[in-house]
Amino acid sequence: MAFLERIEGPADLKKLAPAQFPPLCQEIREEILEVISRVGGHLASNLGVVELTVALHYLLNTPEDQIVWDTSNQAYAHKLLTGRRAQFPTIRQLGGLSGFCKREESMYDTFNAGHAGTGVSAAVGFLEAREQKRQSHKVVCVVGDGALTSGLTLEGLQQAGDLKRDFLVVLNDNQMSISKNVGAISAYLNRMITGELYTRLKEDASHLLSSIPQIGEPMKKMVSRAEELAKGLILPGLLFEELGFRYVGPIDGHNFDHLLPTLENVLKLKGPTLLHVITKKGLGYEPAMKNPVWFHACSPFDRQTGLPTQKAARPSYSAIAINTLIGLAREDPRIVAITAAMCDGTGLTAFEKVFPNRFYDVGIAEQHAVTFAAGLAAQGLRPVIPIYSTFLQRAYDQIVHDVATQNLPVTFCIDRGGLVAEDGTTHHGAFDFAYLRHMPNMVVMAPKDENELQHMIKTCLHHPGPAAVRYPRGASLGVDLEAEPAVLPLGKGELLREGKDVALVAIGVMVHQAVEAAERLEQEGISVAVVNARFVKPLDGALLGEVARQVKCLLTVEEASRMGGFGSAVLEFLSEEGIVNVPTRCLGLPDWYIEQGPQEVLREKYGLTAEGVYHQAKRLLAQVSIQPVLS
User: Fold this and answer.
1) Domains, in order of start, for the chain
2) Spatial separation of the C-alpha atoms in residues 129 and 464, rounded to whole Å
3) Residues tagged active-site
4) Which pLDDT tens digit goes with each residue over 466-481?
């Protein structure tokens, strides 16, 4: 670490000569590999963006000049160069560095982002704040090529092009390859067209043509059209030019001889500019270059082999959900599957292999995915959208307006419901119960185990309106699967235990924790009823009313936000039914954004374990004088 250990901030980077940057980048990659192989994280994209990160911090005056990282899961090198090298081994761990940019963590992190497509819109806000405050610093947004499929990115580009502010968008394109010859020619052309002499001559010529009476303006338009045609033939930038950006690129993002002079030139340009930079995901680590999908967000792995250090003993809920979907799709040709650029993460790769003509990847466009599904459903198909809970939030209006109001049979397989561990604040699926259950026509359910999951997926696909089944990240419980999934009675829960003292009314993954807590309570002579609610909406009012009238207190249990969630639904029901003499407490996630950390550690911290359910029940019992002494 001859170079990296000297750098405590960008000011130290500026003391190095550009000739020293390649070995510095090698050290940065080595540090990222060493840490992420042990703790897991976003590897491939971070290995690919090292040179670009070094170049930006070298040429900009950060933090006065501001870099907005779209998604920000590719900001590991940025963290290493901005005073966080000593803490880097704690990344994504409880109490450690975030895996994303975080304003609370560093003055160099300008905007918190965990979802793709937010960067340009946020940066346009930065531009206008700069104008309002009469400041003159530079604003640069680094956006990935995948984020261009996000409508939010295009909306931001459209406004930025219209405002004409000085603004640089760096398009980090890590999907396209670029040959040596094309790269060299492109770099040469762009050094020419971004140079000060070229820019001044172009502006002078434009001014001269404008001053010529009658023929000046037509000649100016003709020259402009000729320039656009030439760029359209040689460079893939016509779209950005039409949006009001000066397009520059593509250039090799790993070659400092190309990167530094071009970037230095575009930072001097006036108005909105887009610099197209080609990078290679996983550069410097062969397994990540061969398998960038797995190494996009990987678990700990063996550096020598690139293989995970631990394999799950049981299949994941995601795998079981998609295997069930495949089986049902064999029987029903109306079933189609849609993903918003998360084919591998949701398990839909297996569906695509079996039904390539009934599978759609719409890119990072969750809003479009939902309305597209609504269109399919309106024409008699049965679309299914497996999607992470945190990403479905982005399509809230489309669920309301395009699906629920028309009562269309769209199935939402909500993956990563609840706590999702190291990705942290922006990725926990805490709010899905709350943001779905208040929609008229919507059915919301969550299984207690993988066997119930397969039944719920079939239930969704046999329901004539919109339905959602929500399941957690990680390995399943290992229960036996029935040979064929069955349709569950709509809105019917399951009474697992009868009891007279306290009722534990649980949903989803918390059901088995409630059962375990009940067993411990009964060993102390406490009579415990346990309800597997199954449905957040519609609630099983008959079962809940019967149980509530027989016990002295009631505890709802969910791995979701308490505010507006399943517990709130139970409280509303009890109020409407006039069952007001049963002390009730809701156990769930509190009213703040949950930090990153291992699932089991977070569950223990927030009381979402059998132990936590046990203690909450004992406290509640103490309030009604069943157990006067807390244990």
Assistant:
1) 4-194+239-288 (3.40.50.970), 317-470 (3.40.50.970), 499-623 (3.40.50.920)
2) 49
3) 281, 366, 394
4) 999 999 999 999 999 9
